[in-house]
Amino acid sequence: MDDSPNPIVRLLTGLAGEAGFVPFWRGMELALYHPEHGYYMTGRQRIGREGDFVTAPELTSLFGELLTLQCIEVWELLGRPDPFVVVEMGGGSGRLAFDFLATARRFADFFRAFAYRVVEISPDFRARQQELVKSLGFGTEKITWSETLPERIEAGVILGNEFLDALPVHWVEMTPHGLMEVALAPDGQIMLVPPQPPLDSDYFNGFGINLASGYRTEIGLAAASWMEQAALTLHQGVVLMIDYGWPASEYYAPIRSHGTLAGHQGHERVDDPLHCLGAMDLTAHVDFSAMARAGTRAGLTPVGFTTQGWFLMGLGILERLQRLTGKVAPEQAESLRQAVMRLILPDAMGERFKVLAMGKRVPQGSLSGFRLNDQWPRL
Question: What residue ranges define each of the domains in the chain, with the CATH number in brackets?
Answer without folding.
Answer: 26-372 (3.40.50.12710)
